[in-house]
Specification:
Elements: H1 3-16, H2 24-31, H3 39-51, H4 54-61, H5 63-69, H6 72-77, H7 81-94, H8 100-109
Helix pairs in contact: 1-2, 4-5
Length: about 110
């Protein structure tokens, strides 16, 4: 990670690091620890979902890691229903699920 990206990551982390007793460096190391599903990491991911825009989230966590970490356990941890529903829809689409409208089109054009 170059110094500009690292500074951007620290700026993002600073927005939600006010109630943690960790340095930005420690939290960035936690974020970059791909494959880790510790409670601390999942809590920080949930806080990221509730705070950041999608672009900021992907910049900080990476698309693959966001997809891997967005589980039912994480979903239930999101406090606001509207945020939870927005991410449900987004991950549903990103995971290449067929939309009900697409099913309708395919069903009615193949006859």
């Amino acid at each position: 990670m170059n110094s500009a990206d690292k500074q951007k990551a620290f700026d993002l982390i600073s927005r939600i690091n006010w109630d943690y007793n960790y340095t930005n460096e420690e939290l960035l190391a936690l974020i970059k620890k791909a494959g880790d599903t510790s409670n601390m990491r999942l809590c920080f991911f949930i806080k990221s979902l509730e705070t950041f825009t999608w672009q900021e989230l992907v910049f900080l966590w990476g698309m693959e890691e966001c997809d891997r970490l967005y589980t039912d356990k994480v979903r239930r941890g999101i406090f606001h229903k509207s945020i939870r529903e927005a991410y449900d829809g987004l991950f549903w689409l990103l995971r290449n699920k067929t939309t009900p409208f697409k099913n309708f089109i395919e069903k009615n054009t193949n006859s």
